[in-house]
Each structure stands twice: as structure tokens, then as C-alpha cells.
Amino acid sequence: MEKNQATNQAPQQTAQEYNQLVAVRRQKLADLQAAGKDPFQLTSYPVSDYAGQIKEKYAHLEPEQETGDAVCIAGRMMSKRVMGKASFTDLRDNSGHIQLYVRRDLVGDEEYAAFKKMDIGDIIGVKGEVFRTKMGEISVKVSEIILLSKSLLPLPEKFHGLKDQEIRYRQRYIDLIVNPEVKDTFVKRSQILRQIRDFLDSRGFVEVDTPILLPLEIGASARPFVTHHNTLDMDMYLRIETELNLKRLIVGGFDKVYEVGRIFRNEGMDTKHNPEFTSIELYQAYTDYKGMMDLVEDLYKQLARNICGSMTIPYQGQMIDMDHWERMTMVEAVKKYSGCDYYSWATDADARAAAAEKHVEVPADATKGAVLVELFDAFVEENLIQPTFIYDYPVENSPLAKRKADEPAFTERFEYFINATEFGNAFSELNDPIDQKERFERQVAARKAQNPNDTCQVDYDYVTALEYGLAPTGGLGFGLDRLVMLLTDSASIRDVLLFPTMKPVD
Questions:
Q1: Region label for 429, one of left (φ > 0), alpha (ψ between -120 and 50) or beta (otherwise)
Q2: What is the C-alpha separation between 143 and 70, in angstroms, rounded?
Q3: By CB neighbour count within 10 A (0-12 exposed, 13-18 middle, 19+ buried), where does 410 fall?
Q4: Contact predicate 466/251, CB 8 Å
Q5: Which end of the chain is more exposed for a tag (fewer CB within 10 A), N or C?
Q6: Which phi and psi (to 5°) does residue 372 adopt?
């Protein structure tokens, strides 16, 4: 414990020095407890005021002007400057920070002596009068100060702070204490989610909850986490999507539904992927993927206005124009950025030859549609900086999307990209139960051909639901975390997850 904690400190502080600081703090706690003043026995404090509101309310004060107004605040002590009979300290609460002026003749000898023994990081309660100092700082002239909770571990060294990204992610509580701007990201995340809910609710969508534990592994490409239900004596799977259950609700008579759902995928981790993440999926009867495009555009424009205050937002060195969205078919995008024309390929062999000319490896049995997807990945995505819809995907990689009536090799599907990153996926949902069953079975067969021990199955109950009739439906899914990254200019998904998945230290 002490060894790991010591790594939180600035490089110039040795483990021995750190452990000495910890020992001093623990001795202070022991002394308080021996004197019957155990701070951990306190259960409440009558907070009535907050730092940010105090500074805003009294911003008009002149230097050295007093108010006579009493306040009662509480928070963490972030600095302390003891100067004989008077001292200054900074208190930080949920709303910001404020300076405290502590004088021995105002709080009394005993209380002032107790204050001098308090440490940076301690949680304190304060009563006093608001005034502005000679130097112009809105402050509280303290009449009472009490220790509410003892910090037994020292915070990272004042002037260096907590810079190690690994420690910041592992010990987010320290990150939030010493880097208060980090909190702003998560406050904004909450605001973004509230805006999304308000947007969908105002359009008549109903928020629902669907199961996280599922009885079978569906044949999708994402790998699930597996657990075991003891009472039923069966393996169960953490969901990799909410799609099929939400569409069951459309069958059942809901016309517009959405879910803000935690999703779990047993896959790799990088700056854009975490094994558990938040997805928002929504389904609307009697519309199609073009209707979903309009909804996405309207939603993102509203978020840019209300969250960022501008239709042009910065993201990792790029200026993103949220007011303009380009729309291209996958065929058009591949032709534009690679020069390969899908419609010039008479056969699958022609497509594979075109890929070979572009030095793009594809499977020996790749179809024209599969080659198109590979060329898209190789040449197109990196160029999609400004908001762009790519639509009409090959049927080969779209098992849940409806085929285009006039071009059955393609489906009514789109993905949208910003800064060369995919942000969401949408379909005109496949509602033909016969076609759906065949696609599911082909998908599962392909998985088992690669691995005979694969446990994926066809969700025949979903096929049964379709047999009762699914109205023409548009569906959309997008990751909340990537959206928060965009709107907060965050480089990594770990920056927008309070507690990202981390490899154990040991």
C-alpha cells in the first residue's frame, strides 16, 4: 500500500519521506481520538452557503469592505499559509474555491492551535463573515473552524500536481481533487445526456430498460462476457447491444423507444474503445434510415448549440462544422478517395483484382461487397473529418438492415463519421422474418466454420417476433462516450469515463 501510494507523489519526494508524512497524519488522528475529538464520529454539518455563489453574490465589494453577513460552508482544505496569529487557507467545495482568513483572536487560542495542526486535504467546516481583502480577494473571516474528516494520505505535491495519466485513471478521486477542471468534463457529460433525453422525449420517444443478462450468445461479430447463473445452472451473456429487444417492443406496439444502456464487449482497449461503454439506441416505426439521418443531424446541431455555444467546435486540432453534414453512398466515397468504381466490376474476381492493384488484402473468396468495405476502410475513413453520412452498405456486412428494393446487393444503412471516427450506425430495419432467419443462420454458420467450438446461436425468438409483424422502422445506435469526447475535446475515451477499465497493477 505505502509503496503504491508513494508513486502518486512528485519525483523528488522519496518513499521514505512520503511514509513519514503518512505517519504524522495518523498520529494526529490518534491524538484527536485520544482527546475525544475523533472527526470520524461527526455525522453532519449545517452547510448553508457555497464558495462559487458567495464570490458571485459579493463580487461588487470594494477592497477591505466588510459585509457583516455570516456564512456557513464546508469543503476540502487545499492550501494553508500560517503567519503567526493569522493565517490564510483555501477551501474548495462543489462550486469552486474561496479564501479563508483565520485569526487567533477571532476563533480562540484552542481552536487556532487545532487549525494549525490541520493538513492540506482535510475536510473542514467553517462559519464566518464575508469580506474583500486589501489585495482584492473575496474571503471569509472565520469565526469557527472544525475538522469534519481527516485526510490520512497527503495529496500530490502542490506545484507538480498529478500528471501521471495511469494514476489519474486508476485513482480518479485524486484526479478530481487536484485537477478540478476534470470535473467539468463529467458535469458536461451529464448535461449532454440530459439534452439527448430532452430531445428524444420532446419527439415522443419513450425511454425503456431491457435486460443486461441474456440467455444466448447471438451471432454478431462482437464477443460477449460470459457469466454463470447458479440457480438456473446455465451460462449467461452480458449484452453486446440493446437492438433486438428494443425492436421486439416495436413489434409489441411501441412506435418510438430508446434506451441509454450499458454495453459490454470482450474486446481490446484503445483511445476509442473500453470493454464497457454507454450506448444510446432508438427505434421509430414508420420511418427509414433517411429519417434517422435527419434526426442525427438535428440532435447534433442542438447539442453543439446548447453544450458548446457554437456550431463550430474544436476537436483535437480540427475545427468541426456541425452545421454542415455531407451525404455520400459508400460506392461514391470509395470512388472519390480510391478511384475504384464498384459498378465497373462485373464479377467478384474483378473486385478482388481491383483491391490487389491498390495493395489491399482481401480474402480469396471476397465478394464485390466485401471488397468495397475493405477499400472504404483503407482509403475513405481517414478523410472524413467534417460530419459525413456514408450510406447504402453492402448486404454482406449488414445482417440487420433492409435491402434496397432497387439494388438488393446493398442495404438501407448508414454510419456517420467525424474526425475520421465512426460515431453511429443506423438502418432501415429488416422486417422480413424469412430473410432475417437466413441471414442469422449464415452468420452463425460462418462463425462456427472458423471455430467449431463457438457458442453463438440464432435468436429464433426474435425471428418469431418478426413473424408477428414489424412495422417499417428506422433504427439508430451511437456511443455516448465518443460523443462526449467530441463535445469536450477529449483525446481518449478514458478521459470521459470516471472509472475506465484498467489492467491490474499486480
A1: beta
A2: 9
A3: buried
A4: yes
A5: C
A6: -60, -45
Residue with cell string 464497457: 276
3-state secondary structure 104-155: HHHHCHHHHHHHHCCCCCCEEEEEEEEEECCCCCEEEEEEEEEEEECCCCCC
DSSP 173: H
Q: What is the pTM of this model?
A: 0.90
Element (H, E) at 343: none
Give DSSP secondary structure letters for 381-427.
GGG--S-EEEEEEEGGG-TTBPEETTEEEEEEEEEEEETTEEEEEEE
Instruction: Give the per-residue pLDDT at 96.
Output: 94
Which residues neighbour 396 within 8 Å (Cβ) at sequence distance 6 or greater? Answer: 367, 369, 370, 373
Give tens-digit pLDDT for 71-104.
999 999 999 999 889 999 999 999 999 999 999 9
**Residue 365, CB-side half-sphere exposure with 13 Å CA sphere:** 2
The pLDDT, as a whole number, for residue 154 is: 92
- Supply the Cα-derived Rg of the chain in whole angstroms: 29
Angle at 80 between CA 78 and CA 84, to 5 degrees: 170
Find the angle CA(427)-CA(451)-CA(464) to the nearest 5 degrees. Answer: 40
Nearest to 190 by CA among 487, 492, 499, 489: 487
User: CA 303, CA 314: separation in Å to the nearest integer?
Assistant: 14
Averaged pLDDT, 360-372 = 95
- Answer yes or no: is pLDDT of 6 > 60: no
Show the 3-state SS of 88-109.
EEEEEECCEEEEEEEEHHHHCH
Q: For 26-65, write each residue's pLDDT tens digit.
A: 999 999 999 999 999 999 999 999 999 999 999 999 999 9
pLDDT of 196-214, one tens digit each? 999 999 999 999 999 999 9
User: Please, what's the b/e burial string for 50-70 (b: 16 or more CB within 10 A of its CB; e: otherwise)?
Assistant: bbeebbeebeebeeeeeeeee
Q: What is the pLDDT of residues 383-422, one digit of tens each?
A: 999 999 999 999 988 878 899 999 999 999 999 999 999 9
Closest of 294, 368, 290 to residue 334, by C-alpha = 368
Query: What is the residue-averaged pLDDT of the chain?
Result: 93
Q: Report the distance separating Cα 424 and Cα 440, nearest Å.
A: 22
HSE (CB half, 13 Å, CA atoms) of 247? Answer: 30
Is residue 21 packed enough to be buried (19+ CB in 10 Å), middle (13-18) or exposed (0-12)?
Answer: middle
Terminus-to-terminus CA distance in the chain, angstroms? 12
